[in-house]
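Quick one: structure for this chain?
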Amino acid sequence: MKTSNRAGDRRTRRRLLADKLATFTVRGGGVAIIASIVAIVVFLIWEVLPLLDDAEVQEVAQIQAPLVDPSALLADPYRTHIVALGSDGKVRALDLGSGQIVAEQTMVPSGEKNTGGANPPGSDLLVAAGGDGQLHSARISWKITFPEGKRRVDPVIDILPPVRIEPPGQMPGAFAMRPLAEGGRVTVAQTSKGEVVAVFEENEENLFTGEITTSESRSESEPIAKLGQIVIDDTGRNIYAAAHGGTLLRWDSRGARLREPQKVSAGGDITALSLLIGGRSLVVGQDDGSISVWFLVKDQNKQVELTRIRDMAPLQSSVTKFAPSRRNKGFLAASKTGELGLYYSTSNRILWQGQSPIPELTAIDFGPKADAAYLAGLGELATLDIQNPHPETNLQALFGNVWYESYPEPDMIWQSSSGTDDFEPKFSLTPLLIGTLKGTFYSLLLAVPLAVLGAMFVSHFMSPALKSIVKPMIEIMAAMPSVVLGFLAGLWLAPRLEEIFPSVFLMALVLPVLLVLTGFAWAQIPAGTRNRLPAGVEVLPFMIVLAAGIFGCIEMSVAVESGVFGGDFPRWLRESFGLPFDQRNAIVVGMAMGFAVIPIIFAISEDAFSNVPAQLVSGSLALGATLWQTVTRVVVPTASPGIFSAIMVGFGRAVGETMIVLMATGNTPIMDWNPFNGFRTLSANIAVEIPEAPQFSTLYRTLFLAALLLFILTFVVNTAAEIVRHRLRERYGKL
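Got it. Here's what it folds into:
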């Protein structure tokens, strides 16, 4: 007896131990799942937060430099040397490590008066005007060698032939020079008499001898008021100048000829002028410290006008100098009182403000890699270290309208890369968010009615024998790989649907009518005759009529397109409604993704219908209600929490779908609800862009933001769905 008790105690202890172990495992698994989700969210937020950080700028060096009133600076990419143009007309290269002059060239002849220098934005030239009536220039390059395995940077100063503007002894006024990508250069200056002179030099290479000949043409304008500054864009076609009273002037120099300038009022005296990389955006600084960005925009008459696009955060005193970045649309601005500001045009951000370590600035330069700035004054040179990894983004740039260069109006655009270095990245996530919702909407528009009504029919109207075949077949559809569905949709369905697109509209009108008529005809068969037929045979006439209707609509497609749509449905759509038609469009995606979502919604909905208590159904039928009345008025309300859950699960499946939308949409980030064109979703964008995104770059972090948006979207929808489901259960749970 005691042995039996001891054995029972051991079994009890084992059961208790197993129960505790199971409880610990279940709880541990739940906690691990929650911890994993929280860790994912924290990781996503950690990767995204740097997008909104401001720049970090700090002084790293300040030396006494043997430079003579430098008026223009050029630094090398490795932060080892700086080349300065002095007021004495000499170009000097300074070693930043030792503070010694390592190269020196005379650019303006000795004895001639030098009016000052300029560094054309984004170029490698230093330019000065001399008292000999000519513009002198020097091209700066860097010779990189590796003696004994160590990098060595040597500045190379090439003095270029001068360009005559006036007779000897006359002093040119405001001036600018721009080298052209195809060779040659454009030089513009104002003479002492007020004319604006433009000299166009073009290089031509003899293909047989390799000899290069230079042709020169000149154009002059009528005398105008004294100009403050002149800048030339990268193509040499557009010339901008600042005149007294805050007037901006623009010359169109097509055909190597100055036309009548366009004049625009900036609203105050202009004290600084510069072009950003690419030569499209003009930055204007004014006497009151205001800074604005302008570029050319076509008006309603297709005429190009210089337009004020955005106003940046102002400085506290008159803006004196700009130093544009050679990497992006950023620039450094300096004021009369030594205040500095680091700006980015596209996102309209001021990334940093501070005071110059050199009180009286005479020249500034933004380093070639946008990681340093160089400030020069009377015998002093300071180097600033700049950490500015993500200037392109803020909430406005990510989700709002931005007026991009060469666009007629503000817009929301995703375009992460281009073929040129002067590209303006466009990181608006709004088109991707709209595309995600668009794809989800059209897929659920097809999937929800078919899946829910199909589940209702299978659970309460279909014969058990047929149900045992149909239900597994529909559920096994969920095993179809989405990449296969996307492949079929993009390469097979889309081109065939384009050929018979009018038949889709015909099916939407004809098939419901045919099904209703078939049901009416079936109901006219005597009940005794129907009862003698095998169970489930009622499905056959509907299938036959449905197949015949689809075949007939397809056969009538050409006739319908000719009679209703003028023989060309895409052209009719474009001319009648202004809607474009793409082969891979939202309707194709709706069909393909609906095919992927239907099994999920069907399976959950069918379980919800089948789990309605049998006594509710029996009671309703016993009280005289028909089966249709019982299903629609008793079963559907009772099963509504499960049906709603099924739709939300299908929503989450559609939102996160990648391969189908990637292969069947054309993957174009278009922001509209037109069902006849494509779109790009957040998930597809991540799949496309992440392999090409440099680690920790702005694009890289923006893709993490897209992933965070997907998580937030599904979390909010699922939370709302759970609240609604709970309330529906409370309402109908007592039936």
